[in-house]
Amino acid sequence: MTIFARFAVLLNDALDALVAADALPADLERKNVVVEPPKDAAHGDMATNAAMVLAKPAGTNPRALAELLVAELQKLDSISSADIAGPGFINLRLDPSVWGAELTAIAEFGDEYGQSDIGTGKAVNVEYVSANPTGPMHMGHCRGAVVGDALASLLEFAGHKVIREYYINDAGGQVDTLARSAHLRYLEALGETIGEIPEGLYPGDYLKPVGNRLAKEFGNKYSGADEGEWLALFRKEAVSDMMDMIRGDLALLGIHHDLFSSEAALHEEGKAEAAEKYLRKNDLVYDGELEKPKGKEIEDWEPVTLPLFRSTQYGDDQDRPIKKSDGSWTYFGADLAYHYQKSQNADRLIDIWGADHAGTVKRIKAAVNALTGGETEFDVKLVQMVRLLRGGEPIKMSKRSGNFVTIADMVEEVGKDVVRFTMLTRKSDAQMDFDFTKVIEASKDNPVFYVQYAHARICSTLRKGMDEEGFAPSAEHIDLLGAEELALVREAANFPRIVESAAKAAEPHRVAFYLNDLASAFHTYWNLGNDQPDKRFILGQNKQLSEARLFLAANIGQVIRNGLRLLGVEAAESM
RNA sequence: GCGCCCGUAGCUCAGUCGGAUAGAGCAUCAGAUUCCUAAUCUGGGGGCCACAGGUUCGAAUCCUGUCGGGCGCACCA
């Protein structure tokens, strides 16, 4: 329970006391009452809106109610003062021992400080990346990958059981293209002259090693053979190599999935048929004609009859086909079966998608709703486009020429931590610009270093305290800490609250911004020591205060580490 | 034409369930280093929160409309 939640309980008790004294109606809705940090730290340690929220339904005015409440709250030892401010806020100042206790709690919980149980062990499946297994990861995949990974960590920390899943689209037409491209490279590896890669195949050099491997493994067995003899095999082999490569790229970003699910396997197991059968039985799939698409002229348009899912019943613009006219499954047809499969092992599903797939959200939500009878919570988190720039000019990425910025390039140039932190310091439903040149040039000014530097400073101070004076962090005399030090504790105590709200909102970027605030508070305090030597952490002549301050520093460091861990960013010990 | 997302300082972005004087970084200007890491700190300038209505004690936040930008709109993935 966060320190704010604990005071919310005390506030609730105070309200009960007013009810018991007939000063307040018993049946008031209290859910909008909050205890939170005040906007301005000068207002105190905590603030509540209780009087403003409850005054109207209680038939009184905010100030009058606030006065009653203040009288109750002041009875508590842990509250040193309660004042009414502005339109009816109640600002609380806490007894310093409360902050001391919180500081000790950070030390006790260590890596677990900030953990929450609001997830109540509910199993959440987070599906992210799921890039097509046809080439290396490029920057277009990066944001979703990082956001998904951080979200998964965050939910885990907030008390969920998390499954990190990757869906391998290894059944569509693009995999045939991959197989043919790999076959060409295979011929090349056998010494044949292949010339320029034909239009419609993947030209990238990354397929050369695949060709080499296949040549080594199969010799010239498939060099003059009909496509029918090798296509399935090459598909499987090439996909496997691509997935190895993708896993390698993800590892560079520090991303690891628990589960890789194959679309092809889904079909082999007849999952899509089963879903279709179920939906037909419930009259949610029928044979019908597709409408002519609007807003776009299609020359060879002809109406066809296909099995359609009634997504219009769930607010979609039109019913959607689950099979193509050649009888094979559409992406959607497979996808609904896939989501049904995921729902078997999770209470909640979260998909991280690129914004270019926004148009398909309604239909898949509808399908999950239909297949699970609304039992499984399902959210799609859309991650908006990243516009890639170099020196202010948009980078033209062309698959044809194989000219795109890969994640491997990016990580090599600016480092994993910078890439991750940059992607995580904006909310994901707004577009962002990522200027390659700027990020590389300004890498020294990158906000990630600001946070890491605070941590490094702390580590260095702890080392110095030990090496030069033999001082070790100790909670023994934390009552010696003054207002400035306790302000730092107050900032650190915000962490559990941020974890909870970020998890609830599925917004990992809040953690990044919080860490920036915490680092800022630390740097500010640190610099007090420049002008006022008695504010330094290590005071040779005062062991007790030094050890208390080192204890403070150590635990600020602990919170920074915990936060960075959620973001997948290293907590540097020196810089 | 329709759907989804966005519009906050010169730039990149935060802004919690509707709450107090709208914040940070970069850039810019003025300062701080015989001192625990200056990759830091302190201060200044810079805002019609796109625009117009509405809801209410109170709106950057919620609703409606307008304008502007992005993405999508076969059976592709």
Tell me, rounded to a whole number, the average pLDDT.
91
CATH class type of the largest domain = Alpha Beta
Radius of gyration: 29 Å
Shape: globular
Strand content: 5-15%
- Looking at the structure, the CATH topology of the largest domain is Rossmann fold
Number of strands: 15
How many helical stretches?
A: 20
SS class: alpha/beta
Question: Reading side by side through the largest sheet, how are the strands ordered?
Answer: 7-6-5-11-12
Distance between the termini: 35 Å
Q: Which architecture of the largest domain per CATH? A: 3-Layer(aba) Sandwich
**Which sheet architecture does the biggest sheet show?**
5 strands, parallel
Q: Give start-end ranges of low-pLDDT stretches.
A: none
Q: What order do the helices and strands come in, and which of them pair?
A:
Layout: H1 3-20, E1 35-36, E2 46-48, H2 50-58, H3 62-73, E3 79-85, E4 89-94, H4 96-109, E5 123-127, H5 139-157, E6 161-168, H6 173-189, H7 208-218, H8 227-252, E7 259-262, H9 263-268, H10 271-281, E8 285-289, E9 305-309, E10 320-321, H11 331-343, E11 348-354, H12 361-372, E12 377-383, E13 386-390, E14 393-394, H13 407-414, H14 416-424, E15 432-435, H15 436-441, H16 447-469, H17 483-492, H18 495-505, H19 509-531, H20 543-567
Parallel strand pairs: 5-6, 5-11, 6-7, 11-12, 13-15
Antiparallel strand pairs: 1-2, 2-4, 3-4, 8-9, 9-10, 13-14
Helix pairs in contact: 1-3, 2-3, 4-17, 4-20, 5-18, 6-7, 6-8, 10-11, 11-12, 13-14, 16-19, 16-20, 17-19, 17-20, 18-19, 19-20
The chain binds one RNA strand of 77 nucleotides through helix 2, strand 15, helix 16, helix 18 and helix 19.
